[in-house]
Design a protein that fits this description.
The protein is α+β, with helices and mostly antiparallel strands. The protein has 13 helices and ten strands. It is elongated and about 100 Å long.
Length: 406
Amino acid sequence: MPEPSPDVPHKEGKTIVQVASLFNQLLQHFPRTEFAALVKKHDAERAAKGFTCWTQFVSMLFCQLGRADSLREICNGLGCCLGRLVHLGIAKAPRRSTLSYANEHRPAALFEDLFWTALARFREQQGLGSRQHKFRFKNKLLSLDSTTISLCLALFPWAKFRRAKGGVKAHVLLDHDDYLPAYVLLTEAKRSDVKLADSFALNPGSIVAMDRGYNDYALFGRWTMAGVFFVTRLKENAAFEVVEECEVPEKRNILADQIIRLTGAKAQADCPCLLRRIVVWDAENEREIVLLTNLLEFGSTTIAAIYKERWQIELFFKALKQNLTVKTFVGTSENALRIQIWTALIALLLLKWLHHLSKANWSLSNLASLLRLNLFTYRDLIKWLHEPMETPPLVPVAEQLTLGLI
């Protein structure tokens, strides 16, 4: 489609659009030179015959932002916009067989690197906002958890989880500065969460909030020796002795604050250091929550607030599963599945950025839904974020001019 001329008038006085589609403007956040360098690094286009990695990336990002559930939907959806695809950097919509083959054989590590490169750039430009709950401490706050993505065992035999069930796990270390991952590890669903906790590199002074599934005294001992702090739930059958009773703040939800020592023989050998046991009253669910931490200097209410912040990683998983295509997969190989999950994380990064910029006060799910319906709308992206319901400018229709002959 030719670029619209700013001098072309319209009968109704409506300004003719002078910007690219929303999808095109989102793709501009992935510089082609940077993308080409990643392709070269992974040798991703070795023996390629015309089908580029960029076309594959655009197709899989359309799968996520357009909520396409199959290769047919991806290819037909892009095919419907044939005249506008050149603005996305691709000549034509891919064939299903071509896209399927690329997802199966081209390295998923390319899209993993693309996610971390783009995330680093957004963070450097401070384009993702800041944490909602402000703490006085300067320590890096992280949450550690995993989410299971169920798969049909007949279609994904390599991902056997239980006797008649398949699945994969996404282990995520969430950075609470912007509520996006610091690390992501994709494994089979049968892999234990706690055994993979050592896979994440943690800097001294970091605070990790996690659920009871990561209870491992040997892990706690190693972290304490390395200067890494944790806040988690204490196991119900934990054996310990109280070394000191700490003062409990008045009119707060703290029921007890104690310095303890583990008394089990193995627990003492694995974690000989002093720990802290804090009992918190959860008024919403009318129950007691018993916390365990090696933060001996922090206030008990601050430690309770840190554990409450762990809920942000649950919201992250919810946003990923509800707004993007990670429940149905367009390929059955492990490589194709990894590509789809990494492009889902890239799409979520874009949604988080848009959500931070928008002044329309809409939820992330509403943003994702409206973006899906307006991917090929020709509007200025920032103006659309602020006034999404405004009537879009008209796209000029290419007309054949007649040549006057004398």
